[in-house]
Structure formats: C-alpha cells, structure tokens
Design brief:
mainly alpha, 12 helices
Amino acid sequence: MFATETDRSAHRAAERAVERTMPAPPVTPLATRLTHLALAAIAVVILVFAWHEAEMNPAQLMRDAGNMATLGADFLRPDFTDWDVYVNAMLETLAIAIWGTLLAVIAGIPLGILSADNVAPHWLVFLVRRLMDACRAINELVFALIFIAAVGLGPFAGVLALFVHTTGVVAKLFSEAVEAIDPAPVEGIRGTGGTWLQEIIYGVLPQVLPLWISYALYRFESNVRSATVLGIVGGGGIGMTFNETMRGFLYSQASAILIIVVLTVSVLDMVSQRVRKKFI
C-alpha cells in the first residue's frame, strides 16, 4: 500500500514537471484579432449589400406557391407527342457543341502553347493571355447575340459563340498543362540542336496530350449544356424549341424536352468519363 501511494505521488510530480516544461499556448496578437474582425465585418457588409441588390425575398416563394404548384403539376405530365421534333432539335444541339468544341481545340492548341511562360517569350505570353481573358470573360449568350446580328438566327451563330468562348477556356487549361511539364526532355532536345518546333512536338506534346484530351472532353460536356441554352436567344438547337413551348405555356411539352436533354447529357457524361479514364 505504501509503495502504491509513493508511485502515485511520483507520477503526479512527473506530470507537474512535464506541464511546467511545456510551452505556453500562443497568444494571438491584438492586431491579428482586429484584422480578423475587420475581415468578418467586411464579409457581412458584402453579403448584406448582395442580398439587397439581388432583391432576395423568400416570402415571395410562399406567396406564389399556388402558381408553382400548377406549374409543377403540368411538368409532371410530360407530353412526348412530338418526340421526333425534340430529338432532331437535340441532335442539332449536339452538332453545335461538337463543332464549337472542335474549332476551339484546334485554335486552343497554338494559343495555349503561346500562353505558356516556359515555352514562349514573355511579351507574347502577356498579349495572348489578355486576348484569351477577353474570350473567357464574355459569356456564350453574349457572343451568340453578337453573331446572330452578324450571321442571322440559327445554329451557325451558336457554333461561333461556343467556339470563341471555349477557345479562351481551352487555351488557359492547355497552357497550365504545358507549364507543369518536366523540362528535362525539352532541354535534351535543345541540347542536341533541335528547333523550337521540335521541342514542342517531341518534348512538350507527349507529356500534355493525355491532359489535353481530358480537358477537351470535359469542355465538350459543358458545351452540350451551354448549347441547350443558346437556342433561347436564337442560337439554334433544342433551346429554341424549349423557349417556344415555355412562351406558349405548353409546360407538358417543355417537360418532355427537359427529360430528353437530361438523358442526353447523362449518357454523354458517362461515355466521356470512361474515355477520360483511358487517357489519365
């Protein structure tokens, strides 16, 4: 019993000794705490301002619940009477996405290389990046309105809109892949007297090609979804058909169109995911 009490006392003494040797928890400086409070206050002010500017009004959802119930009831009864028309319009949407993506990839390869710091002169990188920033900054719908004014209503305007916007996105993704390559193969080709073009073909492209294919497939998926919206402003595809049904209060037909869009996009996503896995 005496030995047990002695062991306990020794253990408690050892614990107190360890506690005395442990460093004290760091104290946050007053300036740091004030900075955090200021940032939190700024975030709150931004959220309040955005709430006001966006005219957020949750009560309106309750006031218009009856209209939403009527709309939902119509959407729950899809009408596939004109399914062949909807399928043809969906095929047109796919064609818009295919050509918009293909043209963007073709243009994005040289522009992506010229946007990479490790393979292009800095002055040229700056100019090309700013041009690509402009392409990305403007939404596809805005480009569609511009090209509709230039070439008229129809799918060609949708193709051009997707092409320009997607080029800016693809060029950025491609350039980031180039900047992340292993420089050893490029330096080896340069050391043997290879030209700049040979460095790109034999030193850069083999390293980035799998990622480029993955990025291109992903953008194609995104462009299929974007192409369904372009038709609302006259850019062709199933969006035009959907817009006509909504404006005519034909909600059952609009529901059928949405189901076809969702099924098509889902199938494309699954196929694209399988293809990407083979390259990554």
